[in-house]
Structures are given as structure tokens and as C-alpha cells.
Write a structure and sequence with these properties.
This protein has helices at residues 9-20, 26-33, 37-49, 83-90, 117-127, and strands at residues 69-77, 96-101, 108-114, 134-141. 13% of the residues are buried. The model has no long low-confidence stretch (mean pLDDT 90). The radius of gyration is 20 Å and the shape is elongated. It is built from five helices and four strands, in the order αααβαββαβ. This is Winged helix-turn-helix transcriptional regulator. GO terms for molecular function: sequence-specific DNA binding.
Amino acid sequence: MSHKVNLDKLDYQIIQEMMENAEISYADLGKKLFVSGGTIHVRIKKLEEVGIVKGTKLSVDLKALGYDVIAFIGIYLEKSSLYDTVAKDLRKIPEIVRLNYTTGNYSMFAEVVCKDIQQLRFVLHDELQKIKGIERTETFISLDESFSRNVIASGE
């Protein structure tokens, strides 16, 4: 977790612009925000140092790469104190792309991306079954992703 940092309007504008297009050059971003490219560079360096900006990620169309199955798995633990151990084991399964510690019915909620149902079956039947501390799971297959977006960065 990052510490509470004093950010100004320019910092929030930089974050918002970079979330929309991480490939924009510092010079072009500076022109857009009416400051120098050097100022943008210094601000981004500061945002990286305090842990707000964590590098850039390439946005990929998973379906175009042949990943046709996205599923969410609600995981019930035998004891909630097993979370860290189970999370460490789940991290070793490459098909799990996101894991959250949650309130509600499940102790954990995982997002899984697979090429097909056979691969999902392998993850559920062979991989998850090996992990000690998981009492049971409930799987939800995504039929369609309506949208995915970043939060709007604002100082309010």
C-alpha cells in the first residue's frame, strides 16, 4: 500500500492521461498539459518513487490470443488464517490472473483465464485440488465482459 501523498492537479492530470495512453511521449503529454516534457518526467519519477505509478502494462485482447474462457472462482478456506499460505500456492497457477481477499461468502475470489474448458477443468480439478486449506470452490464462467476500465484519477 502506498502512503498518503500530496498530489496536485497536474499529478492527477498526468495519471489520468497515462492511464488512457501509456505510450504518449513526455513531450507530447507536456504539450497537452501546457508544461515541459522535463516536468512530466520529474512528476512521473516522483509518482513511481511513492508507489502510485507501478510501470506500464500492455493491454492485450485475450480472445484474439485464443483465451476463450474467463472464469471467477469463489474459494472457501478451511480457516481464514490460511489465507497467506493458500495465496502463495495460488500464485503458482499461471492461469489465475487476479486474486482478492474478500468479505462475504468466500474467503478469496480469483479470476482465471484459460484457452478452453479443458484447461479450466485442469485448473479446477488438478491444480486447486492439490492446495491444502481450500475447503471448496464455486466457479462462475463469464459469458461476456461488458466493459473494463480504470478509475478516474481526481483529487476530490
